[in-house]
Structure formats: structure tokens, C-alpha cells
Amino acid sequence: MNAYFTAAVTGLAAGSAYALLGVCAVFTYRLVAVVNFVGAAIGATGAFAFAMLAEEGLPLWLSALGGVIIGAAVSVAVGAIMTRWFADSPASTKAAVAVALLVGLVAVGLRITGGQHPHDFPALIGGSAFRLAGVEVTKASVATLLLALAFTLAANLFLNRSHTGLQLRALSERPVAAELIGIPVHMLSLWVWAVGGAATAFALILIAPQRAPNFLTLSLLVVPALAAALISFFRNFWSTLFGGVAMGMMEGLATVIPGLGEYRTAVPLVVILVVLLWSQRGARWDDAR
Amino acid sequence: MWSKTALLLAAGLGTAMSGPAFAAGPTCPDGPIKLGAISTITGPVDFSEVPKAAKAMYDAVNAAGGINGCKIDYEIADDKADPQVAAQAARDFIDNKKVVALTGGASLLECAVNAPTYKRAGVSSVHGLGVDPVCFNSPNIAPVNVGPYTLTTAMGLFASNTLKTKNLCAMFIIFGGTQEAYKASIARWEQLAGQKAKLVDLTVPTSGDYTPFLIKARDEGCDAVISNASEPGVVAWVKTADAQTITGVNWLFLSPGYTVEVAKTLADSKQRIYVGTEWEPYTEQNSAANKDWITAMNAAKRPLTAFSQGGYLSAEAMLDVIKSIDGPVTRNSINKALASMKPVSYPLAGSPYVFGPGATHAPMQATKVMRLAKGTWTVETKDWVVVPTK
User: Domain total for chain A?
Assistant: First the structure.
């Protein structure tokens, strides 16, 4: 039993990362109605910019600021493509464009960052926060989790309580109507992309030091993140947060359960399937068809 | 400038050109001797340095007048780590360009894709860097490198014989069809060392957080862990071990971890990190064994990397084989020369290179182990760690 608890705790680092990236994905979806496949790749751009600036000898916090700004800038560029040419397109088209942008960004990113050669990602927040069941829970993991929590709280408050939040919700649900009643659709969308990009870049700056420092692997963190977001159908920040953490812990558990280890990377798929089946539980055959 | 380069390289090629076999020598009635290499250049990895080093060697030979007056026409194809592209490249080399042999190739998947084609067409390959298991299990391919599977056994022997570890664990990332080959390499170590592996975990993901695996290794009581993580994977692995304050475990990695970038990135780590090399450690630039290779690469302005050692060695072996031929250099005469060749010792490698008539070839069975300390690789085993044949 204790071994299982230990194994679950080992998945906390991954889980907090999924949670934060998942929350960022929900944020983008709820405000600009794009399933952001390119999110983690945008974050990876910022994280690599951070590492490269730090390699140039810049102080860590300044490098992190640089990374966050570059992440935001790349995100705005992606957002500009989305809002200029695909604002009125159906969700499936936007998702396809996001996947295409992911492939493009990864190809360019791998070239610029030197492919398989690792960059040195300094730990912005180093060391262990506490020890739980024989596992060091790092300060970076705790910070990632706290950031996800803060983002969840802030996003909820902002969307439900502020005037701009209301405008943004209108923008995501009825972009044309929103534009007609005078909401500055284009500018607001770009701000959403900027905030989402900055948050993801900061998330990856925290996560990257203990991951394989490779542009592709960091970009593919988007898969578990989107699985976490799907738990609430890209609607609810809290379920995404808890879902992300639970998924990481399930992956940790799978490592020590004989016969399951080979399939641990399939955890997001299982989560997606279960959510889809659960969401259809009340539907009769005719409705579901 | 070019003639100076050529002279230097030709000098580096050594005495073989003036040996007795050269007296009768190879001929080329149909024009230049056509050789090819299929390598992964674009895609997830870039192995281009291997065939480029081989090309530098052939260029130098050509600039010095060729072998017995025969020039070498050496071409490199990129397989993009795509099986279809690799297959197409092999057909193009064999059917259209009529190459007599392949040399200096380094690919993630080319052996697995093209071995049957080579067998059918009767073409042999002296690979610069064999990666997939078929490279070491085909009658037509004999790489000049040790490869990840023999290297796993060798690192196991280093752990049990030199480090005197009692609880060796193996944690592998399984790509494609490599599972059986890794299992066999651990079984081979168990047989040679007379020990059982404490833990064999073949479920490590290529990417992701390694914390669960490191904690598992620690809790199982492993005192040495062999991992086949790639370069960024090694960095993540060791940084996670540091974050988990794991002590007393020897981390044994294979040759992909042996780079200057890894050393720099892990300069602050207190973990015990070892890697097995494919050839004479390339970072030991004062080593006598590296002298000819360094001279040749400097003359051709090619970087001094482990990859360029592979290309250099494969070209050296192929040139020696061609020089041993009396008469026209064709696929048949090269195959005959390869099958009947005597083992040749090269300073860069711990085992003599031989192709021979066997159904499979893995001539290279020796490694030197490097240890990472304070950002620098140092030689841990002055002598080669050789995997015994039985």
C-alpha cells in the first residue's frame, strides 16, 4: 500500500505540469474558442529563450522575463493568424490550423534549438519543498501547482466578475455579434493569446529543468494537458486542475503496477475515453447518434 | 589549400597504400568506384557528421590520385528517418547509381528497412554507426561501432567487475523492435557475470517525467542502473536524481550520453555518471589512438566528434578492403574481399574489424568507460572493456 502511495506521489511533478498547461488550454478555449494544440510549443519557445538568455549570462529572473515576453510574442503571432483568417471558421478548422502550426513551430524550434543537443535549463526555483512518502516534492512542482491554482482563481474571477471578462465570453461564443455591438474583438483576442502564451511560457520555464530539454518532447506536453482540459469539456478550470494532477498520479502509479507500466503513456487516452463515455451516459441511442 | 589538405590526409591514411597488396592493385575499367551512404540527416536526429567524415577521407584519396588511379565517387542520401525514403534511397543507389558497396551510413532505421534489399542485390555495407538491431544481425552489414546492445552488456560487465555492484538494474526506452535485442544483451551480461539483474524495466518513456522510475530504482535497492536514454534524456535523468537527492547509485549510460553538452549541463551534479564509448574517447585529444583521426579531420576542417570517428573508421576499413582487391572493383569482388578479410586492428577501436562470411556481424565488442565529474569527461578505464565471445 505504501509503495503505491509513494508511486502516486512520484507523479505529482508531472501532474502539476499537466494541470497548469490544462488550465491554460481551458483559458484559451473559453475566451477565443480555439483548442490550442500549439500551446505547449509556444511555452517551449519561451522556455528555450529563457535557457539561451541564461546561457548568455543574463540574471535568471531577467532571462525568465525575457522568456515570458518571447512566449507571449509567439502566442500573439499565432493568435493573429487565428483571429485574422480563421475567426469565423468552425472549431474543427481552428483545431486543424492549430495542429498545423504545432508541426511548423516544432520543426523550426528543433532547428533553432539544435535538435537533440541539450541546452542547460537552470532551475528558476530549485530544491525540495518537502519530503512525502520518501519522495522529494520539488519547489518547482509546488510552484507549478500554486500557479495553476492562482490562474484558476484569477480566471474564474475575471470571467465571472469583470466587464472585460463578460465581453470576452461574448467574443468566444458569438464573435460576429460581439463585433457588431462594438466590442474590440481583434484587440481583446490578441490580449487573450498574449496572457495565455506568457502563462504557458512561465509554466514551461518551471517544468523544463527536470524534463528532457528537447523542443519536441516539451511541445508534446500538450497531449496530457488537453486530456486534462477535456475532463470538463474545456469549460471548468477546477476540474481541469484536479484532473491534471490525478492524471500525473495515475501515471506514477502505473509505473509500479506489473503489466501496466507499458501502457502508462496511454493514461491520457483512457481519460479521454472515460470522459466521452461518461458524458454520453444519459443519452439514448437516437440522441447520441 | 586543397592540395595541402589532400597531402595531410593521404599521409594519415598510412602505409596501406604502399603495401604489397597495392602492387597488383584494384582496377576500375568502368570509371570511378561508386560508394554510397544512407543516413538520417534531417528528422529527429542528425547523423550527417558520420558520412561527411567518410566523404572527407574519400575526397582526400581522390585528391591524392585515387587508389591505384581509381577515383571514388561517394554519395550521401538522407533517409529523413522515414522508412519509405530509406527504401527509395537504397533502390536508387543499387539500381540507378550502381554502387559497389555502402559505407559510412548512420541511420535510425535504415538497416531494418534495407537489409533484405541488400541481401537480394548482393550489396554489402560497412556502416559508420549501426543503431537498430538489424545492423548487427544481417549477413550484408557489419558496422564499425559497438552499438547499443553490446554496449549494454559491456557496461554491465564494467559495473559488476570494476564497480563491484551487486544489484544491477536496467531501465530502457524501447524504440520500435529493440526490445528483444536489449533483453538479449542483459541476458548475455547475466551469463557472463554470473549474476541476475535486480530489475529490468522496459517501460521507460522517451519523454516525460522520470521521477517514478528513479524512485522505483532506489526503492528496489539498485546500486547501478543502465539506461539507454538519449542526450536530453540523460540530462533529465540525472537532474531528477539530484532533485530526489538519490545517493549511492552508479548511473550507466550508453554512447549517446557522451557529449560535451551533457558534461556542461550536468557540471554541478554530484551523481556518479558513467558512459560507454563506441571508440577511443573522442574528448581525449592527446591520445595516440586518436592522432591520425584528428590529423585527418583537422585537415578536412571537420569537427572532432564521436560521429566523425565512425565515418573516418568506416572509410578507413572500406579503403583497406578496396586496396586488397586485385582486378576490377565490383560488388562481387568487394563482397569476396569482405568475406575473406583478416581482422584488422585500428587504433580507434578496441576490437579488430572484420566482416567475414558469417550470417550476422558484430565485430566491435569493446568500449572505454568515461566518468563525468565537474563538467568534464575523464577516462575511467584506461584499458578497453571487452565483452568476451563466450
Answer: 1
